[in-house]
Amino acid sequence: MTALHASSNYVAADAPLQSQDLGTDSSYILSIARLPGSYAACTSAPSNKIHLLDPSTIRPILSLSGHDSGTTSLRVVNAVANISKPSLVSSGLDGSIQVWDERTNTYSIKMTDLGQSTGILCCDVSEDGMTVVGGTQLQGDEAQIIYWDPRQPAAPLRRHTSTHSDNVTVLQYSPDTPNLLLSASTDGLISTSIATEDDEDEAVVHVGFWNCSVSQAGWIHSSTTTGVKIWGHSDMETFSTWSDEVPSQLAVLFILSDSLQLDLRQSQDIRDPSLHNHSQYEWHTDYLINCHSSKTSPDLKVFVGSNQGDFALLSNGDLSQPGAPWRLMNSWSNGHSDVVRSLYWDEKNSVIITGGEDSKINLWNAPSSFDSAGLDDAMEVDSPPPDSRKRDRENDDSHGGKRARR
Predict the structure, then answer these.
(1) How far apart are CA 376 and CA 63, in angstroms?
(2) Structural domain range at position 221
(3) Res. 224: pLDDT tops 90
């Protein structure tokens, strides 16, 4: 059993500030990003479109075609190629990565692999904008990490084919270490590598093996410690944290190896932390939506959802210790009628944008601060009943298997 407590500053929101339905074709809202003048949201099949939304009303102001075979990831980067302004970048099952120009309603750069159509599941862009990287589906016996110079988009610069042995689901450049790339895969590996290294054997820096398919992962900023820190999420709703702070008795072994082992700090079912106090608080977690960590908001905030469409923010006092207590910080309800698939925390404007399997996109007030107190007067709680652990996956096939992206 994992303990969950209500923070002394716990706040519940019972309605969104704004709500919009992005279509009648039952598309899921898969991903949300922030441009200077709009939010961008990509949808699943049958739409596959990327919608640009007014930041105040979240009403659609422009629609981009997206990728013909399905848009798999969406992000905003500060620079790409010779474009030194925030740009919208997406990857797709058509085997391309596209940089969009909202002024012309189409892409300005399209990176392809010499005409190959192997689906690309994730992408990122280096801080200087001169390298674009994409992770592919398994094709034959290879899953690739492919690098492009976006100024020459027709053919890749290099490719790494042995870092992972199954679908590459996560690629993310380190916000602190230039050219250090995080990757994760359905093969159970979470790795970091030097993105500028041509020799793949020399490129890999860290490796961590988690005995499950990794659907999400990201870097953890910390205000108190240094070193590599990573969070992970599996298709089975397990949650993990990793670091390169190797226990002393294993240090010699890892120094002698070709790469440094990532140390698994915490691994648990994210559905376990639940709170029961029927007079005031109650929360049951059914799935993880996403995690948030940034330089301005360090340490990890974990956003989880319920099958009824509500979502909550959980925080953990010590992610390096198994069984460390969790806190319920905030909850939001009555905005979605189905699973929340995507979430973007706009720290600058103190709002949260969510997208769901109900085709709705909602705007919410964001938490203003996080307290380190609240445990002394918090309430002990227990694990959820078995029925609340069941997540409805019946719609996966009808939406092109998009659930596997998570």
Answers:
(1) 50
(2) 4-405
(3) no
Residues contacting residue 104 through CB under 8 Å, at least 6 positions apart: none
Count the Cβ atoms, other than its own, within 10 Å of residue 212: 17
What is the CATH number for 211? 2.130.10.10
**What residues contact 261, with CB distance under 8 A and at least 6 apart?**
206, 207, 208, 246, 250, 254
Mean pLDDT value of segment 371-375: 38
Tokens read off for 20 = 């919009």
State the CB neighbour count (10 A cutoff) for residue 334: 14
Report the distance separating Cα 305 and Cα 290, nearest Å: 10
Contact 272, 325 (CB under 8 A): no
Q: How many structural domains does the chain have?
A: 1
Work out the angle at residue 117's Cα, subtended by the Cα atoms of residues 112 and 118, and round it to the nearest 5 degrees: 100
Q: What is the pLDDT of residues 185-203, one digit of tens each?
A: 999 999 999 999 999 999 9
pTM: 0.87
For 254, the enclosing helix (H) or strand (E) is helix 248-256
List the structure tokens of 297.
């908001």
Closest by Cα among 313, 269, 265, 272 to 290: 313
Give the contacts of 391 (CB within 8 A, at least 6 positions apart).
237, 286, 287, 307, 339
